Structure formats: structure tokens, C-alpha cells
Amino acid sequence: MKDAIERDIARVVALHVRLYACRERLLAVTDDEALHDLRIALRRLRSLLRPLRGLPLVQVLEQAAGALGRLSGPVRDQEVLQGELQRLGHAQPAQALAVAREDQYRMIATAREMRELLALLDDWPARWRQAGRDGELDGLDRRIRRRLRQQQKRLARALREPQQDRHALRLLIKRVRYGAEAYARQSGLDPAVQARLKAAQAALGDWHDRLQWLALTEKEPGLQDCRAIWNEALAMHVERADEVLLKLLGDFPLQR
């Protein structure tokens, strides 16, 4: 048990250090990948925490990570849209999105959500070790396995819904995939299944992006020229998503 607790702490500390580095990169506006890297670190932290729900300290830390994720999400969406507009040769609307980028980066780096998450992570190792000494982390491995299996069962049912909700499926696939990355041994999913989850997530992510961009064209006259391209891409990504979701049926059979 002690070894497992120390492994968990080491993984969280590594993400803590990465978050600090991302914050400094955002403050300095040194590169275009700082926000993306920040969100990857948040995703990995939340994936480590999700199967631990109900244990001491987890809820408040997960809530803090989620708050920072929600704050940074719209800015990341703008980054992705800017890249798409540049790809299509629409320099003017792409530049308009880039104008406020430095202020947005610094806003995230200095936000209350950032400060609160980093402060909680400062205290995490000592408090997690104390929870272990108090016996509050007994059965940790069993708890993780059970939670990951529950996620997989939910995905198996969702894949078989007559009227699939692609938004809900995208979130379920992300959670199952990231849970398997965080806890490879406990998840029971081999690399081939994880690769198919990644492909399904990518296809649904492409579909979701086009759906959001098409909604934007209703409000932004400068994006009207992109509407036909995004409509065509949306249909293609719907077809691709259906193909990869079909492949997952064999990976996630219904279980009692």
C-alpha cells in the first residue's frame, strides 16, 4: 500500500511541476503550445483523480482542476479555430482571434482558479500520506478497478443506444481512454483497444469542432465563407465517427 501511495504522489507531483511551468510560459507568452500543454496536464490530473472519488482530499482537488479547465477551455477553442482559419486562408478573422491572445494567456495564468489549484497541490503529498497512515486509502487498487469497470460498462451501453448521443459518447470515450492511460494495469484494456478509443475520440472531436464552427457562422458574418467547407467536413466526420464507433462494439460487450 505504501508503494502505491508513493507512486500516486510522484505522478501528481510531476503534473504539479508541469502546471507551474505552463503557468510561467503563459505569463511570458513564450510559445503557442503553453495552453495546450496546460490542458493536457489538467486532463491527466483529472484522470488520476476520477477513480479515487470518495477518498479524502479528492473532491476539492478535482473541483479545482475542473474550474481551471472550464476557464481555459474557450481560449483553447479559439486557438483551434484560429488554426483552421489560417489553414483555409482566412487571415483577417484569424488575426482578429489572435489580437487578444496575450491578455487571455495572462488572465489564465493569474486567475484565482490557477492559484487555488496550485495551492491545493502544494499540500497534496503530506495530506495523502497522512490519509494512508490513517487507513483511509485501504483497498485503493480494488476501488480503482471497480470505477474503471463501471466507466467501461457505461460506454458499452451507450454504444448500443438506438439514438446515439454523440456528445455523451465523446465524453464517455475520453474518460475510458484517459482512465486506461492513467491506470493501464487496472483498466484491463490492451493497447489495440486504446488505439481504437483514440481514433473514435479523434473522429468525434473533429465532428464536434465543425458543429461548433457552423454554429458560429450564424453569429459571425466573417465566417460565412467557411460554411460550405465545414458542412461538407461535418458529413465526412459523422461517417468516420460511425465507422470507428462500430469497431468499439466488440471491445466493449454488454456485461451483467
Question: Can you walk me through this structure?
Answer:
The chain is mostly helical and 256 residues long. The chain folds into two domains: 1-138, Four Helix Bundle (Hemerythrin (Met), subunit A) (Up-down Bundle), CATH 1.20.120; 140-256. It is built from eleven helices and no strands. Helix 1 (2-28) runs antiparallel to helix 2 and helix 10 packs antiparallel against helix 11 (227-251). The longest helix is centred in the first third of the chain and has 30 residues, at 58-87. The two termini are 30 Å apart. The mean pLDDT is 92.
Helix content: over 70%
Shape, per Cα inertia axes? flat
Biggest β-sheet, characterized? none
Return Rg in Å: 20 Å
How many H/I helical runs?
11
Helix and strand sequence:
HHHHHHHHHHH
Distance between the first and last residues' Cα: 30 Å
Which CATH C-level class of the largest domain is it?
Mainly Alpha
What is the second-level CATH architecture of the largest domain?
Answer: Up-down Bundle
* Mean pLDDT, all residues: 92
Query: CATH topology of the largest domain, what is it called?
Result: Four Helix Bundle (Hemerythrin (Met), subunit A)
Strand content: under 5%
Unreliable segments of 5+ consecutive residues:
none
Structural class: mainly alpha
How many runs of DSSP E, i.e. beta strands?
0
Count of folded domains: 2
Short key terms for the protein model shown above:
mainly alpha, 256 residues, flat, 11 helices
Secondary structure layout plus pairing:
Layout: H1 2-28, H2 34-49, H3 58-87, H4 91-99, H5 101-109, H6 112-133, H7 140-159, H8 166-182, H9 184-187, H10 191-217, H11 227-251
